[in-house]
Amino acid sequence: HVPEDEGYELHPLLKTAISTRHRGDASAAAASLASAYERARLPMRAARWYLRAGDTAAANAAYNQQTFAQIETVTSNDATAAAATLDERALVENLAIFNVAAVEQLFIHDYERWFAMAEEALRRAPDEVPSEVRAFAINMLVSRYAYFGRFDDARRVLNAQSARFGSQPEYQPVLALCDAFVRGTHDEFVDLAELRVKLNAMLLDPYGRAAFASMASYVYAVQGDWPAARVELEVMIDTLEHAKQDMHLEAALMGGAFFAWLYGDNERFDDWFGRHEQLAATDDGAFFTRCVRDAQSPATGECSIAVVRYFSYLIASARARDAGAARWYARHALEDARRTQRPFNCALAHLALGFLHPEDAQRHFTDAAAAAANVGWPRVGAAVAAIIAGDEDAGMLSAFRAHYQHGPITVTSR
Asked: pTM of the prediction?
């Protein structure tokens, strides 16, 4: 028996070929039909039949293929016009499509519209949406809220999805990952060894492994374990590069370059910053490049994401040879650190201001210690305490302190 595709007439030759090859084997027939759809460049239909054949890995790959194809189509047109004509019905009925909305809205700076559309998609999505696709959507929305420092919204969405799907085994790994991402990016304690056990088979999938790497790289970096953070960053960057997700790759390279700078890994910094500079097509990416390349005067241009401004300003504050410019950057880094709601960011910005304002260093160091006390890993507090005490070894922040110990700086008033 050849499975029928509701609302879509199979070509008679295709029906005959499948019937002949897979007599009596419905699963094999479904897989053959899925393969035929994929060759016909109809990955959404291919995904449906891969699921019926029991091949969830192939189904997930087909959904990803559809998503990337949609992104390429939409981003090749005028961004604003494309976003305005997105098929909202498709957005709601197939959650893979809302990744298109994610990319488009993030890069035309209409975040609120995308967040509203994404939440509506999750709320209205029919029950038959495959768990792999819904899990992808949950992870995208929760992680984006957390990335923008909107932790209350991230937890609200996560709690709602956990209440609805938390008892279903297929959702437990992604919900655990989302919970860790929200806590980790808010500088709360995350047990990565325990999380790996919970994720289990999810880590066998390249995209699942990359999602874990995105979260783990930040956690390891804030813990002070740069070698482990570097490994996770390399996994994430390589996966995004292979998938040709240039916009997300640009952001990953930016974050990687920041942490390589923080830990004094010049080789990784030069590599990742150089690759980021070649990709920097967004306003935010170009802003980061300008700050790092030309730190001698306050940056100009637009940058819409607080954490990107923070990365840019903090590096520039250490690279500027003019004290006035350095202090300007450090003050703005602190403002954006507060917007990110991440204590680790605030601690670093206060330390930078302490290095650059010797006359007011004690106040900034005290504020740095207070911020570090809210970070879930003790090595941060120990490193800040070592800096305040003037110890030769500042622990995980030794390279960071060294960035501010360059030669004489020309003082101007700013």
From this structure: 0.76
